[in-house]
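Now for one record.
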Amino acid sequence: YTYFYQCSECRRCSVYCPYGIDKAELTIAAREIMASVGVANKYVTEVIANAYRTGNNIGIPAPAWIDNCEFLERELKDETGLDIRLPVDVEGSEVLLVPPSADNFVNTDTMLGYAKVFHAAGISWTTSTYADEAANFGLFLDYRNMKALNRRILEAAQRLRVKQIIFGECGHAWRVAMFMKTLNGPLDFLRTPYPIHICEFTLDLLRRGAFRLNREANLARTVAYHDPCNIARAGGPVEEPRALLRAAVLDVREMPENTIRQQTVCCGGGGGLLTEELMDLRVAGSKMRAEAFRTTRANTLATICAICKAQLRKALPKHGIEAEVVGVHDLVGRALIPSTAGEKTPMHW
């Protein structure tokens, strides 16, 4: 138990293994066996229980989700003067957005960034109180729970009669989402029979002129990008978030070559390790990422994973590094020029 629950399932060892052994797959298999006899991580099982009970990992009931969306709408009104909505349970919307629930309550600037993008492009969208969680902790426990949690998203999409499912900034959510069709398909009721990542979606709209960005809005920031393991080593997107950062920020820096893209270093909090009782292990696991970030001399670290954000906000100060940890859509949202929002003909993707 101790051995397999200190593995973050980051898969970095598989990149370097001369025999091509994927240690994360061995960890997943071992955890499956342990779960079958009732041995599991308390943090992981509590998160899964929350998702079944409330539709999200942090146990927030539907009225609280709706209330917070309305609160964020008021924040957007104060900031931009525009009526930018965060719709909930709206049937017939073009898009079902499935963010990590942390984006609606902790990483709220990321959630605001999503809303600004949809508003600017004139695309109808909604979240679902039945499945308002992208992250799938079943990946850290067993196949049965992973499949069942993913199935909730499909059921929400069918109930709301949407045309597309878009996943927000969450690493292991996307690792599971990429084989959603295999897990719970077919997805032939969607415009494209597979889910879309928010970075691919936003970059496509930007390139098609749905909105403009002002990089000087992030003038005080020097930004380094962290590739989440579950993105970089599970099929991407890898270049899309970088392209968005370059469009939204004047000064974007890369970490050393041996710690980016498929060779990226884990934040140290993945695999179900994101709990206070494992803080010593998390700090040790974050050291390589922290030192790589230190070499950039940036004051902001951007990433597209809710777990990476939560982990690095805690871990970087432990290594003597003071920096803001944000999402890519935080910076896109800040740079989006409000006067362009809603002025164009509604776009489809």
About this structure: The beta strands are 95-98, 125-126, 164-167, 196-197, 222-225, 251-253, 300-303, 324-327. The mean pLDDT is 94. The two ends are 45 Å apart (CA to CA).
